[in-house]
């Protein structure tokens, strides 16, 4: 019996070894290699241009400002630039952080000379500059980046001697401010140099028309807004009559009648007579002498 079982055992061992070898080879093929312990093939990465250091708005790029960084194809930003020759000499349209991928929307068009005022104007908007004063500019507190409301004072149509003030624009961003010296005619008729403040506002074409008209015909004022306050408030404007009505005096009340105080009981003249240790007070009136009302000992 034992002699017959030995061949069967040998055959089972051979089959087990063959199955093990086949299993190992199959696992190796699944991993992409027949060598155990070797990692599977990695996905091929692509190189994308990124900022080598923080870049300011308006910077002209050169080869030292950018570098290549590997990205997974699915993780690379859409339109990311990969050739340094495509960006060298171009100007940044906004600030770019370090290691931030370089994309076309972060650069000015090819041939742009620099990141001037035109680069700050949003699509569909216009930059319009108006003259002002220190009072109009809140004593120099209105600076680029602030938002303002524009008020203008006009002569009322058909009433040259009556004026009205109206808010014509709201929540307008200030792009730039500046001061220049201009020649003006002084009170004595002589020409003199004086400072003139300028404010450049970003407006739509329709708002630019209203702003230009207010600058030519009326007296303008800028009202500084709190950051984050985007509410639009409709107003009817103000003239002299409305202003006086707003501050009209309250209805006149009848004058208060002062209550008369009762006459003191001891009104009139009195005479005090002291005799030794006694003191007597005699009250007098217009008709004669009244009887004494009090008698008491005087203090020793």
From TrEMBL:
<dbReference type="Pfam" id="PF08666">
    <property type="entry name" value="SAF"/>
</dbReference>
<dbReference type="Pfam" id="PF16976">
    <property type="entry name" value="RcpC"/>
</dbReference>
<dbReference type="InterPro" id="IPR013974">
    <property type="entry name" value="SAF"/>
</dbReference>
<dbReference type="InterPro" id="IPR031571">
    <property type="entry name" value="RcpC_dom"/>
</dbReference>
<feature type="domain" description="SAF">
    <location>
        <begin position="46"/>
        <end position="108"/>
    </location>
</feature>
<dbReference type="InterPro" id="IPR017592">
    <property type="entry name" value="Pilus_assmbl_Flp-typ_CpaB"/>
</dbReference>
<protein>
    <submittedName>
        <fullName>Flp pilus assembly protein CpaB</fullName>
    </submittedName>
</protein>
<dbReference type="InterPro" id="IPR036732">
    <property type="entry name" value="AFP_Neu5c_C_sf"/>
</dbReference>
């Amino acid at each position: 019996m034992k002699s017959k079982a030995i061949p069967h055992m040998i055959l089972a061992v051979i089959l087990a070894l063959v199955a093990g070898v086949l299993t190992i080879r199959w696992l190796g093929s699944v991993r992409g290699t027949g060598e155990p312990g070797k990692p599977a093939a990695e996905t091929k990465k692509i190189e994308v241009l990124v900022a080598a250091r923080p870049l300011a708005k308006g910077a002209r790029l050169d080869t030292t400002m950018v570098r290549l960084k590997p990205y997974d194809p699915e993780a690379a930003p859409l339109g990311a630039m990969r050739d340094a020759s495509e960006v060298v000499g171009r100007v940044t349209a906004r600030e770019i952080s370090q290691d931030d991928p370089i994309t076309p929307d972060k650069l000015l068009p090819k041939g742009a000379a620099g990141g001037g005022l035109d680069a700050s104007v949003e699509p569909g908007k216009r930059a319009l500059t108006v003259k002002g004063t220190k009072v109009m500019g809140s004593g120099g507190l209105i600076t680029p980046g602030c938002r303002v409301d524009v008020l203008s004072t006009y002569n009322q149509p058909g009433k040259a001697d009556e004026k009205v003030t109206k808010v014509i624009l709201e929540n307008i961003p200030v792009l730039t401010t500046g001061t220049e010296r201009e020649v003006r005619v002084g009170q004595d008729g002589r020409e003199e140099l004086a400072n003139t403040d300028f404010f450049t506002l970003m407006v739509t074409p329709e708002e630019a028309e209203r702003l230009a008209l207010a600058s030519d015909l009326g007296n303008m004022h800028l009202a500084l807004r709190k950051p984050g306050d985007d509410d639009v408030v409709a107003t009817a404007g103000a003239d002299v009559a409305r202003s006086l009505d707003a501050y009209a005096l309250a209805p006149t009340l009848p004058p208060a009648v002062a209550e008369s105080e009762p006459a003191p009981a001891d009104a009139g003249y009195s005479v005090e007579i002291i005799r030794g240790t006694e003191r007597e007070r005699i009250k007098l009136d217009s008709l004669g002498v009244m009887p004494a009302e009090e008698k008491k000992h005087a203090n020793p």
